[in-house]
């Protein structure tokens, strides 16, 4: 069982920035971020490879969001810039075995955090 603890959500105006953090209890998993807005399916946001540091982004956030990691702290960060009201959602951190590289498939993520709310006002 992997414990994931997210933090950093909040209320921000359009055009603003936030940084989310996800601390993992197990260093052998790669981490990713998803988000879910009311009435919508959970959507892939970003993932980072534990071994290489390579990254992948969903189309709607590419160029605005940046995922990074600190392996010494078992922590992954998601920097959200140029936020738009459409970015309003609960953001979830998720863990997948490190052998699975940069997957967007949420079914391959075995463990999930409790989520952190991001609200962007217009």
Query: Quick one: biggest sheet?
Result: 7 strands, mixed
Low-confidence stretches: none
| Tally of contiguous helical segments | 0
Tell me roughly what share of residues is in helical segments. under 10%
Note the run of SSEs as H and E: EEEEEEEEEEE
Q: Tell how many strands the DSSP assignment holds.
A: 11
The value of Rg in angstroms is 13 Å
Broad shape: globular
Work out the strand percent. Answer: over 45%
What's the rounded overall pLDDT mean?
Answer: 94
Instruction: State the distance separating the first and last CA atoms.
Output: 39 Å
Query: By helix and strand content, what is the structural category?
Result: mainly beta
Keyword list:
single chain, about 120 residues, mainly beta, seven-stranded mixed beta sheet
Give me the secondary-structure topology.
Elements lengths: L3 E4 L2 E4 L4 E7 L4 E8 L6 E6 L6 E3 L7 E6 L4 E6 L8 E9 L13 E2 L3 E6 L1
Parallel strand pairs: 2-11
Antiparallel strand pairs: 1-3, 3-8, 4-5, 4-9, 5-6, 7-8, 9-10, 9-11
What does this structure look like?
The protein has strands at residues 4-7, 10-13, 18-24, 29-36, 43-48, 55-57, 65-70, 75-80, 89-97, 111-112, 116-121. It has 122 residues and is mainly β. The model has no long low-confidence stretch (mean pLDDT 94).
Give a short summary of the structure.
The protein is mainly beta and 122 residues long. It is 0% helix and 50% strand.
